[in-house]
Amino acid sequence: MNFSFDEYANVNSPVHRWDVRAKIIGLLVLMFAFASVEDLRLVPVILTITVLFYSLSQLPLEFLLRRLTYPGFFLVGVVGLLPFLSGNTIIWQGGIITIRQEGCLAVLLIASRFLAIFTLGLVLLGTSSFLTLIKGLRSLGLSPILTDIMLISYRYLFELGHQFQKMQRATQLRGFQPRNISRRNLQIYAALTGSLLIRSYQQSQQVYKAMQLRGYGTPTQLRTPKKVTLDGYSAIALLLTLLIASSLIGFELFL
Amino acid sequence: MHISEGILPSKILISGYAITSLTLWYSLRQLNRQSNPSEGIPQAALLTAAFFVASGIHLPIPPASVHFVLNGLLGAVLGWYAFPAIFVGLLFQAVMFGHGGLTTLGINAVIMGIPALIAGFIFNLRNKTKLKLSENLSLNLFGFLSGAVGVGLATLLFFSLVITHLPSAWDQDTEKAAIYGLMLAHVPLIFIEGIFTAMVVNFLRRVKPEILIN
Fold first, then answer.
1. Which of A52, B88, B159, B185 has the most CB atoms in a 10 Å sphere around its CB?
2. Could you give the CA distance from residue B123 to residue B75 in angstroms, rounded to a whole number?
3. Looking at CA atoms only, how far is residue B12 from chain A in angstroms?
């Protein structure tokens, strides 16, 4: 199982140099501004902004296309029927198939918003390592319990994925090749899942003991919190991004 | 059963984040009240990772295949940790596979996490109910209910949100009919998830019963 997503985190681009806290705030606000777009006139604008950010990030196009395939199919599954079912204005009819204008416009809007938000999300996640992102979220006020769960889960995700693959291969070597649902097949899947949960539970007890030995959970004397500072480049980039986002929301609300 | 980017309007996405923040705050507050809250963190983290991996099991239903949701099982095993665990799991799915999304993370956590908490509550009712059931039957019954209710509620929330908020020209009756139709089509899957959850909790009781005491 390949779970990695930060393979281009070490590229040196204007987006990579952007402070991670400012990048999280700026890009998330912009993504929400994109989600608020309902006016089709804004579609070219959000797509242009997206292209601009993706070019600035210097991430390869292949990275985007590879990531886009699966959620793209999923989106088609959700909105694929709209052009045939939604609306009253018929733009083409052949036999029992009717294509309606309102449905087509709805698909255009949803697909454009999806592409723009998804690409910006990739710019946010692909230009910082996972650890840097978590540190950024922590300094923005994310709960320490949630941060710890995230970090430990991420640490053991790959290991458990590997263990699970081995368990599945072992069942296949013993002749388990299910082609339908039966009580026996479900029981084998349940045993597989249960075994994985038990392994992870036992491992978590060892992990906790190891963490305790390193001082985890004991009250520590906190250092004086550092003053939050932002370099000039990151501050200007954040302001510009927030300005673009507020302009989009303003256009949507007042025009 | 994840809502992708771009489908829902921003007011729903922001409401999703608001409900998620509130539920996360409440769940974490419950955890902080425990005598040693840090003890449960590695356990919740590793079980989150295990659930994430196990949700990749594909069940062959010819001519296609489906995968388990496991939110009911998560609620039954993790209790209050289920909501933070689902939030983290959904974040990983969004980040690693593009399944769901960052703007939809809040609403997806509501869709999956609130039913998980309800499923956990149902599973714990087995110790409080006054019905005179054998231990085995009680575990099977409440395991089944927690699995089926977890995925059933999540399905209902998912379809209701998607169908009522798609920018379509459907009237209210068509939307209702679509939601009922889709829910009906998912009844067999809800049933299978319930049976599967009962089987897993039964396995856990036989092999490692302390895992079920959350």
1. B88
2. 8
3. 10
